[in-house]
Design a protein that fits this description.
single chain, 10 helices
């Protein structure tokens, strides 16, 4: 590979790290790039997890330094997501890629409508009462989100934010912190599966991860300083753009 290819993945990784930390779907930039540079799709998927893991470390550190969350707070979300991620990364699912993209795109369009029509639910979420039934439902939802994240990753940030804000009543700033910590935990497990199956290009992964760490750290500072209003509009823009990309292209 030429030297410029490693610089390119680092730059795109920085952009993706910023987008992933504040919203999601940065993998819709990194996965096509890795495939364009010659990696098989499954190896690109595994290699991308190295960058996700590295950016998660930077993002978790940035949020933790500002005391945005406590480790124990995220366990009820991280545990089911991790279980789902192990299954998602280990199971080969025979599904038409075009159909899957359109389903995800439609879900993102629906989410963008919710961001516009009921912004108060994102800006001032209400705590849901803790009941056994709701806890079981939350557990199932985060297993499903984790499964998707383990399987393909792209777009999982949007679904994690929806589950945390709309389902658990967490504000967008803290939800972003929870999201990156959940992603960090389950990515360790998912990456292990890809490593065992020899589907990781470490040079590309580390190069992209270095850029992703920079982008993720910058995003944590922006999230804390600009607050939930800015994050909502940034999230809305990302949701709409990536939904159109999945539905049209």
């Amino acid at each position: 590979m030429e030297w410029w290819s490693y610089l390119l993945v680092a730059v795109v990784g920085a952009i993706a790290g910023f987008i992933n930390t504040l919203a999601g779907s940065g993998s819709l930039l990194t996965l096509p790039l890795l495939i364009f540079l010659g990696l098989p799709a499954n190896v690109a998927n595994g290699t991308n997890r190295v960058a996700i893991l590295m950016q998660s470390i930077a993002a978790v550190g940035g949020f933790k330094a500002k005391n945005i969350f406590k480790w124990n707070d995220t366990l009820r979300f991280a545990i089911p997501a991790s279980l789902g991620a192990i299954l998602g990364s280990a199971v080969a699912v025979d599904i038409n890629e075009g159909l899957m993209n359109r389903i995800i795109g439609a879900l993102l369009i629906f989410m963008s409508a919710m961001l516009l029509v009921k912004p108060e639910r994102w800006l001032s979420p209400k705590k849901n009462p803790t009941t056994k039934g709701r806890s079981v439902l939350t557990f199932i939802i985060f297993i499903a989100i984790g499964f998707y994240g383990g399987f393909i990753q792209a777009g999982v940030g949007f679904f994690l934010l929806a589950g945390l804000v709309l389902g658990a009543g967490i504000d967008l700033v803290r939800a972003n912190a929870y999201k990156v910590l959940i992603t960090f935990v389950y990515t360790i497990l998912a990456l292990g599966v890809f490593i065992l199956n020899h589907q990781v290009n470490y040079i590309f992964g580390i190069s992209m991860g270095a850029g992703s760490m920079i982008g993720a750290w910058i995003a944590t500072q922006v999230a804390i300083k600009r607050g939930v209003g800015f994050i909502r509009w940034f999230l809305l823009a990302c949701v709409f753009i990536f939904a159109v990309k999945l539905l049209v292209f």
